[in-house]
Amino acid sequence: MKYGAHIFLFTNHWSDDAFWIFEEAQALGLNCLDISIGDDVHFDKQRCRALAEEHQQTLMLSPGSEWPLAADISADDAAQRQQGVAWHKQQIDLAAELGAVAYTGAIYGHTGVVKKRRPPADEYKWTAEALHELGEHAQSRGIIIALEAMSHFRTHIANKPEQLIELIRLADHPQLRIAFDTYHAITE
After folding, report:
1. How many CB atoms lie within 10 A of CB 2?
2. What 3-state DSSP class applies to 37?
């Protein structure tokens, strides 16, 4: 069994100045770090990977900083869904470059977007199609996609494990897995 932590326990923004977290995580007996990435996150990728290896930290990446609102694979607009697929593919590529094992989070929709309306009949279908495409890309890079259900105040797509299981069943790709986040489970 491995124990890990999200970098938000230590800092609210990943950068070269946060590399001290590798040593701290190792000292705490952790073996995994989930790094929050986004368009506003800039750091020395080679040094990051080397420090993770030096401090025996398995890396995972997840969106949590600047993520364009129009990059949403569950959006009603097909162009936004494609923009979302393209954006997440870039993050998967970054995960592979860093030697990470997984890209995690509520990537099935843009976190913070809660649509208070009756869902379109095809919303799960088109979201699952985008997840399948991301699964193909992740597989080609050796990355697992670990989806997590999030609280209803963060997303309307998958708030409970059953909803996530249904999305994964529809997406039908072996690179898609479930990450159980205790914070969101408790708040839901």
Report:
1. 9
2. strand
CB 141 within 8 A of CB 95: yes
**Residue 143 near residue 95, CB atoms below 8 Å:** yes
Structure tokens that stand for 150 in this block: 């999030």
Q: What are phi and psi of 5, to 5 degrees?
A: -150, 155
Structure tokens belonging to residue 19: 């590399």
Residue for token pair 């088109």: 126
Tens of pLDDT, residue by residue over 110-136, are 887 778 778 788 999 999 999 999 999
pTM greater than 0.85 (yes/no): yes
Q: 3-class SS at 110? A: coil
Q: Evaluate whether 64 touches 12 at the Cβ level (below 8 Å).
A: no
Residue 158 and residue 170 in contact, taking contact as beta carbons nearer than 8 Å: no
If you write DSSP's letter for every residue of 61-81 in order, what string do you get?
EEE-S---TT--TT-SSHHHH
Q: Which two tokens stand for residue 119?
A: 């869902």
- What does the alpha-carbon distance between residue 137 and residue 143 come to, in Å, rounded to a whole number? 9
**Regarding predicted confidence, which is higher, 84 or 110?**
84
Q: For 145-158, write each residue's pLDDT tens digit.
A: 999 988 776 777 88
Cα(78)–Cα(57) distance, integer angstroms: 38
